[in-house]
Design brief:
The complex is a heterodimer of chains A (266) and B (267).
Chain A: E1 22-31, E2 34-44, E3 49-53, H1 60-67, E4 78-81, E5 84-85, H2 90-95, E6 97-100, H3 112-122, H4 127-140, H5 156-168, E7 174-178, H6 186-203, E8 206-211, E9 222-227, E10 230-236, H7 237-243, H8 250-264
Helix pairs in contact in A: 3-4, 3-5, 4-5, 7-8
Chain B: H1 3-23, H2 25-50, H3 64-87, H4 91-101, H5 107-133, H6 142-169, H7 176-189, H8 197-203, H9 205-213, H10 215-227, H11 233-253, H12 260-266
Helix pairs in contact in B: 1-5, 2-3, 2-5, 3-5, 3-6, 3-7, 3-10, 5-6, 6-10, 6-11, 8-9, 10-11
Classes of the chains: A alpha/beta (266), B mainly alpha (267).
Chain lengths: 266, 267
Amino acid sequence: MTAAPSRPVPAMPPAAAAMPALEVERLSFAYGKRPALRDVALRVMPGEFAVLLGPNGAGKSTLFALITRLFDAPAGAAIQIFGAALRREPGRALARLGVVFQQPTLDPDLSVRECLLYHGALHGLPRAEVEAQAARELARIGLADRARERVRNLSGGQRRRAEIARALLTRPALLLLDEPTVGLDAASRGFLLDHVRGLCREEGLAVLWATHLIDEVGEEARVVVLQNGAVRAEGTVPELLAQAGDTATVAEAFARLTAAEQGRAP
Amino acid sequence: MSPAAWLRCLEGIVRREALRFLHQRGRFFSALVRPLVWLAIFAAGFRFVLGVSIGPPYETYVLYEVYIVPGLAGMVLLFQGMQSSLSMVYDREMGSMRVLLTSPLPRWWLLFSRLLAAVLVGTAQVYVFLLIARFWEVEPPAIGYLAVLPALLLAGMMLGALGLLLSSWIRQLENFAGVMNFVIFPMFFASSALYPLWRVREASLPLYWVCQANPFTHAVELIRFALYGQFEPVSFCAVAFALLVFGAFAVLGYDPQRGMLARRAGG
């Protein structure tokens, strides 16, 4: 497990440290006059499971839209994926990125397998390679027997698993998940969390997992607390607890950190 | 990214579009029924009112059914172009648009591939329609069926690019009824699809010039001449020019730095 970088976040890592999977700096963004993000900085290292924790409307989805380049960040901001600047080398940056969006994005009329093959083609990968990789990812996530089923006929949990298999299809080194467990039952949630945490441990995948559910923060996770478009706190779970003033649980720390900031916020 | 990767991406997008169209029976059916309703009902009623039209590319007296088939072929492309381009930004499809845009390939290529995929599906619809139209004795020469292919592709690209352009710049067109009222109907009726332009000129000179300026008129005329094995240079230039203009502005609209998608996502 890679050590968390020293705080405050914008500090550069020592030269010897591995290259961050994701590095966001000085990121502010507004929809017209309505600010959505304020001077956000965060970093995810390879093999790290980072939780972006924030209530609804904190700016998580905006951050994801900017990292996936749905639209560009303002000129002063920097978003880098394994050293490739999203703005200058979007192809190189996006090639290493896998995404699970908050809203469902599978074609309901296509089969699971067809959806995955389409995704592989979007990334320009050879079909034979994609077929093999699709079979592997679906088997790993327990959907091998549903591969030829139409997406329409899958349960919510199965659709989410299919989306994760699709995101992993291109062998990304950085995986973004935007509220992936919304609407799922406890068993499905647990399964997804275990699966993705396993990928971090075993394959060195870097993960940024956005959620508003505090209980999805595991002991080994690094947490970035986002509120009102700004990073309120950031660190490993023990660091977070200490920062909040020796709280016992993440939930308590979260409540205290965000409450304190809310008092200070304009 | 290698050229092979670009082609695999294009192929994947076309394959998805074709699969979706085949799987959605309702869409397939309505796409086919729409022009047939016009041909079987409208044309039958109006063949006596509108009378005959003799003029190039027709060499003899033609039935009204024969006259409107190219216009209806254009209508199929117009509907397909609008539907497919605009559906990308409707809420239920916004997700698939986002997936498309996470591809590492250049954005203009993704949009072009998406456009071409929709045009190929539209062109297949037109061919099915043309075959059924033979039951109404609309029987262009065999060479026409081949010559019309590039005309359909070019016209379809132009109309699809217009749809993309509208989808990126005009937020008010987020429901299809608006598109019907403000784009599809005016373009279709103020064109040479249903009546020859010399008849329009007799009725109203300003309307005649509106029809002449309407790119859909030229799409229809390009298809009409091609269907009879002839090339219409003026229409070709007009359609190609419109494609360039619409395409360029559509790519600008989807430029991540211009923030169209940001405005949309921000609500």
